[in-house]
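Example protein as discussed:

>
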Amino acid sequence: MQITLIGHSSVLIETNELKILTDPFFGTWGNIAYRRIDRPARTRQELRDVNLVLLSHNHWDHTDMSFFRSLPNTTPVIAPWLTSRETRLLGAHLVAGLKPWESRSYGEFTVTAVPAIHMAMTNGYVIQSEGKCIYFAGDTEHGAFMQEIAQRFKLDVALMPVTTFVIPMTMGEDGAVRAVKDLAPKVIIPIHRGIQPRLPFLRSRQSVEGFEKRLREAGLKCKVVKLKEGGNIEV
């Protein structure tokens, strides 16, 4: 199994000759409030052949209408159950809405939707394949549901945010450390690092390095793998 960071929260997971893409976002400018820091490692056209798309929620930096419209009608897009119709309006053709703890199997892997906390209707997802469990958190805050995730799944990798801005959008360093205590993953890959507020006073000093320091201070031994756009690891 190979995990490649495309950029921001877009991650490509390749397993058993199948490709799973999380939260597609290929825009290079951002919006009026946030700029994109680095360009995505792949283009929309280069990833049209994915076998499945996992959508945590419908915020602008996690959904790409042009990409959805370019997908074949047979490519499933898994989204939160209550936003299925909205996801179709964004251009996705074949949408499967999942409630927390619902699962779908696709060939050699299984996807289970899990709870998440954000300023939108949202899911996280656990992918099981090749005897491994990968947790994609989306934009969640820390929550008690993470203890149940750990009870149900032995996580090999957690793809999760570990920093935030002055206006809270995801869990920051402290919340991420609490999440690690609850989830007990072997490896953490930080995500949601690809945008930045255009106004300096809305930024923060939180960083992956600050998160790693807090992990050490808490006595937690899990490995943190900081991928650049296009970087990958074998699981």
The two ends are 5 Å apart (CA to CA). Helices lie at 65-70, 84-89, 145-152, 173-183, 208-217. The chain is about 15% helix and 30% strand.
